[in-house]
Amino acid sequence: MDQAFEQPVCKKKKLWEAVAEKVNAQLRERDGADVWVKSYECDLKWRNMLTTYRKNAARAKRLGEASVHWEFFRRMHEVLGKNREDMDALRRAKLSGTEAGKAAASKRFTPILPSPPAASPCPPPPPRPPQDVLQLYMELQERKLNMWAQQKALEERKIEALNNLAQAISSLAQRDSQVGKDGR
Questions:
Q1: Distance CA 19, CA 149 (A)
Q2: CA 26 – CA 139 distance, rounded (Å)
Q3: Beta-strand (E) ranges in 93-146?
Q4: Residues 88-112 pLDDT 10s
Q5: What are the structural domain ranges in the chain?
Q6: pLDDT of 160
Q7: Of 73, 69, 68, nearest to 53 (Cα)?
């Protein structure tokens, strides 16, 4: 459904409804499942997968493709990470002969991952050693622990403030009841 989704003027909601129908039909056919997928869930899932893909593509660009462990990365990259020449050729083929096509074909596409060079003079940097990963993990855990401690301290201050407020209300109530008994 790429072409339908690429149209500048279309009802995406209707397209996602069609996607949901296809998914539901496949689920019933494959598993006999009585699960119904809604169109907004398909749209949200796609958006989340795109976000995950983009994060992993940036990681792959920074640290190398071996650093990506997301199970769908390669399949998503086959669709979304086409190199510049493929995208330019596709754009020219789709839009050739029209004014809009000439204008669009002249635009450059920047892929998320660069195309590998034909002959690389220097070898790629080695992947990070496991100690670096372990160090990053330990730092993350330490930050989480610090945040938890700060949150705990904040909650304790809230409880103390509530107790002080309750004591103040209680002493005001006692004072008012004394005033009522004394007749003042």
A1: 46
A2: 44
A3: none
A4: 566 666 666 666 555 555 555 445 5
A5: 1-80, 81-115, 128-184
A6: 93
A7: 73
Q: For residues 83 and 94, give the distance between their C-alpha atoms in angstroms, rounded to a whole number.
A: 17
pLDDT of residue 66: 87
Identity of residue 149: A
Half-sphere exposure of 66 (CA within 13 A, CB side): 6
Residues 13 and 4: their CA atoms lie apart, in Å, by 12
What number is the average pLDDT over the span 114-136? 61
The tokens for 99 are 């004014």
Task: Tell me the residue ranges of DSSP E strands in the chain.
Answer: none
The residue among 60, 51, 49, 56 whose CA lies nearest residue 114 is: 60
For 26-63, how does the pLDDT look when each residue is reduced to its tens digit (9 = 90+)?
A: 888 887 777 788 989 999 998 999 899 999 988 888 88
d(CA 131, CA 111): 32
